[in-house]
Amino acid sequence: MNENDANPGEGAVNQVATAPLDLAAHVAAVSTGSCGAVVTFIGQVRDHDPDAAGQVTGLDYSAHPDAGRILSEIVARYSREYPQVNLSVSHRIGHLDVGDLALVAAAASAHRAVAFEACERLVETVKLEVPIWKKQYEVDGSTAWVGLT
To answer: What value, to the nearest 5°, has the Cα angle with vertex 117 and ends 111 and 118?
Structure first.
């Protein structure tokens, strides 16, 4: 998936997006009056990588054309597995600078333990199964594809 194929709608959830991710939209999407616990996860671009020779300045995320469908299927799978938890997750593609949000997830339930568990499993599965790749840029101008395993 290239940047032009992604849903650009800012504030939308459960998508692969080119627009900045909106944590508040994800929280709103899962929150109801019966939810006493809302757990969130933010994955943001950091300025270092153990394998980088120097400081990281940004990442280019690119995705397979099926990435959005796969992400939606993961949300549906965990919604069936955790019917008492409301879930949302989105991953951004395109060029992101240090500090930009790359992944946002939220889980809401009546109780915190199941919300934490569902959110963690959702994030780990998205990272493992959604075909999104990142090209890392370093301060010296060098680049490397990372996280390909």
So the answer is: 90
- Are the C-beta atoms of 96 and 59 separated by less than 8 Å? yes
pTM, two decimals, is 0.89
Taking only the tens place, the pLDDT of each residue in 60-98 is 999 999 999 999 999 999 999 999 999 999 999 999 999
Domain that holds residue 36: 3-146
- Helix or strand run (H / E) with residue 115: helix 112-129
- DSSP secondary structure letters along 60-87: EEEE-TTHHHHHHHHHHHHHHH-TT-EE
Among residues 56, 57, 113, which one has the least CA distance to residue 84? 113
Our count of domains for the chain comes to 1
The CATH number for 66's domain is 3.90.1170.40
